Hints:
There is one protein chain. The protein is mainly alpha-helical. The protein folds into 2 domains: 3-136, DnaJ domain (Helix Hairpins), CATH 1.10.287; 179-222. The chain has 7 helices and no strands. The chain has helices at 3-25, 31-35, 47-66, 76-90, 102-130, 138-193, 195-222. Helix 3 (47-66) runs antiparallel to helix 4 (76-90).
Amino acid sequence: MSVDSILNAEQSALNKDHEIDRILSTCRWDYFAILEIDPLKLGQDDFYDELANKVKRSYRKKTLSVHPDKVSNPKAPQAFEKLKRAELVLNSSNNNSDSSEDVDNAETKSLVNEKERLIAIYKDANETIGRKTESVSQVEVQSLVAKILEEELRSENIEKEFEQRQEAQKMKELAKIRKERELKKKMESKWEDDRDVRVKNWRDYSSKVEKKKKKVKKSKVLA
């Protein structure tokens, strides 16, 4: 093996390591950044067709650098998962009629919504930066997009935590109601179980009172 071949192999391995590190350092929800696609530069008339072609080419090219079966980098599986997710979301389409299952349709709709939301965030970020400066760089846009995505995630987590607390409080109240019902049921059951005892006690008491009345009446007659 020649020196040039060795150097080329080492450079190739180094490039793959750099690509893996780049993907892992990219915001996990910015699928355009992961695939290195700028949605703002795509044509408006054939936006989705052009996007589909770019996603396909980028995914194939980057797979060669991060696929766990093709590289020995221990971080490759994690990078490849991010790459697959990016391809899945950006390739999603409402026109997919291969499956009529409700679950599949719901999942597809969720992916499409995620893609459309990301496109909208890119446009908003571009407009926001454009109001402050004449030249807008892709790096600036991606940085703002990452901040927006992370802020949305924090908001979602806060809302989710609030809902979880609400649900926990609701479950606590339901548990209290169930406990009160069980206690009431036990008391009613005990009341019913003690019925014979109460009847017997009442009869004993009535019998004693009756005997006492008869005894008093008899004493008056003798007098």
